[in-house]
Design brief:
Strand 10 (about 290), helix 11 and strand 11 (about 315-320) form a beta-alpha-beta unit. The longest helix has 17 residues, at about 15-35. Helix 3 packs parallel to helix 5 (about 95-110), helix 8 runs parallel beside helix 9 and helix 11 (about 300-310) crosses helix 13 (about 335-340). This protein has a five-stranded parallel β-sheet with strand order 12-11-10-13-14, with helices on both faces. Strands 8-7-6-9 form a four-stranded parallel β-sheet. The protein has a three-stranded parallel β-sheet with strand order 3-2-4. The protein has helices at about 5-10, 15-35, 50-65, 90, 95-110, 140-145, 160-165, 195-210, 225-240, 270-280, 300-310, 325-330, 335-340, 370-380, 390, and strands spanning about 40, 45, 75-80, 135, 170, 185-190, 215-220, 245-250, 265-270, 290, 315-320, 345-350, 365, 385. The protein folds into three domains: about 5-180, Aconitase, domain 3; about 180-280, Aconitase, Domain 2 (3-Layer(aba) Sandwich); about 280-390, Aconitase, domain 3, CATH 3.30.499.10. Helix content is about 40%, strand content about 15%.
Length: about 400
């Protein structure tokens, strides 16, 4: 991989040990994947934030990086943490977990990384343009950026995204290149798709079929495929397969196929396939917790929930997970007060997957997210009810 003179100096330690370590990581990744050079990025989104997922070893790694003087060179943002950073006591988070979590956030902030703590940075104004190169690491954020915005990022790890944040560049390979952004699986949607759980179930089916291929959807109704539903589709595909980019005819800004549609591998998704997928994911009868916001809720989703619980009393805990910025706007508009008056919580900075819900006594969780329904049984030891907001509430 070609390095400029300035890049060679960074690797040699001229600009400090922290930048040298980051450059060493990027060079190793570039060598593995056959990158020809490093290319500039406009932003980085860094995973590996929840203490639940990175533990003491991750905290030590980040503290060491920060102590070495590493600083972000481009606007850089964090993935969800393991708790609401301001209202963790109200959530019921254990004190020891909270103390370690706050230390993780402090280490990132020392490196100049913004503590946005969201998997939907595009909902808070961080929206890279068509063709813009970025280094994002949360699977659903990657999918949305590549697919719905037409930006370019590989599936970065927490470490590679952090290194890119510090250097301001990423190795030039994979989805940064035109030739690797062509779909080779056609997904014909022959079922009525309108509810959030429909998009989640479709994503689970398509993700399993695609694995690491790029799918192209035919038959989705543009009027029904709003950003909230498409983020749910992409998140489910990233969880059930390894899909980092998809196309939807008439919806996504790009439409790139490896060949004519009739010459490509294809699947047809019918109503019975959606019904069977949803049924297979059910494992809970009674619930301890209902969670909405995986990926994080938009303001319109929070408003919809507020309207449905207004004047009512919830019989169990409800978490509406979102970004800090969305929560502040939900408070301003009165949505948060309505939800809390009903007995729920608008939870910022975290979600049901990366919070320690199994340690907090929850055993059965309801979710309207295909991604959450895929991850909660394995990562949080939860029984699941996968359904739409209306049914869950």
């Amino acid at each position: 991989m070609y390095l400029s003179r300035d890049e060679e100096k960074i690797l040699g330690g001229v600009e400090g040990e922290g930048k040298a370590k980051a450059m060493e990581i990027l060079c190793a990744i570039g060598k593995i994947y056959g990158a020809d050079k490093l290319i500039p990025i406009s932003s980085a989104q860094v995973a590996g934030v929840s203490y639940k997922t990175i533990g003491d070893a991750g905290l030590e790694f980040l503290s060491d990086f920060a102590e070495k003087g590493a600083k972000a060179a481009v606007p850089s943002f964090l993935n969800p943490a393991g708790m609401d950073l301001e209202n963790w006591k109200k959530m019921g988070i254990p004190d020891e977990f909270a103390e370690k979590q706050l230390r993780i956030i402090e280490a990132y902030m020392e490196m100049g990384i913004h503590s946005t703590c969201t998997c939907t940075p595009y909902l808070i104004g961080i929206r890279p343009k068509l063709g813009e190169h970025i280094a994002w690491s949360e699977s659903s954020a990657i999918s949305f950026a590549n697919s719905m915005l037409g930006a370019r990022t590989n599936r970065e790890s927490a470490v590679s995204a952090l290194s890119s944040a510090i250097i301001g560049k990423t190795p030039n390979f994979g989805l940064h290149l035109d030739e690797n952004r062509r779909a080779s699986l056609v997904v014909e949607v022959a079922a009525p798709i309108s509810k959030m759980s429909d998009f989640g179930a479709l994503g689970i089916i398509a993700g399993k079929a695609a694995k690491e291929k790029i799918p192209a959807f035919i038959g989705l109704e543009p009027k029904l495929a709003n950003e909230d539903r498409m983020k749910s589709l992409g998140a489910a595909m990233a969880a059930s397969g390894s899909v980092a980019l998809y196309y939807a005819r008439g919806i996504t800004p790009e439409w790139r196929l490896a060949d004519e549609p009739e010459n490509l591998e294809g699947i047809v998704v019918e109503a019975k396939d959606l019904a069977e997928t949803k049924e297979r994911m059910q494992s809970a009868d009674a619930l301890d917790l209902v969670t909405i916001g995986c990926p994080h809720c938009s303001l319109s989703e929070i408003g919809e929930i507020a309207e449905k619980v207004k004047g009512k009393k919830l019989k169990m805990m409800l978490w509406v997970c979102t970004s800090r910025k969305m929560k502040e706007e939900a408070v301003r508009r009165g949505y948060a007060k309505i939800i809390e008056k009903a007995g729920g919580l608008v939870v910022a900075d975290t979600c049901m997957v990366v919070a320690p819900i199994e340690e907090m006594g929850f055993k059965a969780t309801g979710a309207n997210s295909g991604k959450a329904a895929t991850y909660l049984p394995s990562l949080c030891r939860q029984k699941i009810k996968f359904a739409d907001i209306e049914e869950l509430l």
